[in-house]
Amino acid sequence: MPVINIQHQRGVLLLEILITVVILSVGLLGLAAMQLQGTQSNHSAYLRSQASFLSYDILDRMRSNRSLALNMSSYAINMGDPAPTSTTNCAAANCNSSEMALFDMSEWKQATASILPSGNGEIFFTAAAAGSPIVNINIQWQDSRKTNAPLHNFIFRAEL
C-alpha cells in the first residue's frame, strides 16, 4: 500500500471550496438574470393588457353613442393630439351625443397617457365594403425605462 505524504496535500480543501464558491456564484447570477427577465416580461404583458383594455373601453363608448360614432369624425383623433377639453362631466350629468363624444375622447386620451408610460393613441375610420365602418384604434407606449427605447404599438380593428 502506498504511503500518502500529508505535507503534499495542504491547501487542496481550500481550493475545492473556492471552486465551489465560484460555481455557486455563477449559478446565483444566472438565477438573478432569469428573475429579472421574468419581471420585465410580466411588466410588458401587463402594459399590453392595459392597451387592450383601453381599446375595448373606447370601442364600448362608441357603441353606446353609436349614432354620433357613425359620423366617423366625432371620435376621430390623431396620434399626439392633446386630450379634448370637456366642460361637462357626463358621468354625473345628462349629456347630449356631442357632449358625450367629447367627454369620452377626453377621458380616453387622459387614461391612455396616465396608465401607459408615454402613452398616446389615435382613432381613425375606414369604410367597410358593406355595413358599418371599421374603427382602427392604435395605442403607443414606451415599454422600457430607457429614454431612446422604441415605442410599442397595439393596433385594434373592429366593425362599429
Strand content: 15-25%
Domain count:
1
| Cα-based radius of gyration, to the nearest Å | 29 Å
Which structural class best describes the helix and strand composition? alpha+beta
| β-strand number | 3
Biggest sheet layout: 3 strands, antiparallel
Distance between the termini: 92 Å
Oligomer: single chain
Strand order of the largest sheet: 1-2-3
Order of helices and strands: HHHEEE
Mean pLDDT over the full residue set:
86
Overall 3D shape: rod-shaped
What does this structure look like?
The protein is α+β, with helices and mostly antiparallel strands. It has one domain. Helix content is 48%, strand content 16%. It contains three helices and three strands, in the order αααβββ. Strands 1-2-3 form a three-stranded antiparallel sheet, with helices on one face. A hairpin with a 7-residue loop joins β1 (120-126) and β2 (134-142). The longest helix is centred in the N-terminal third of the chain and has 53 residues, at 12-64. The mean pLDDT is 86.
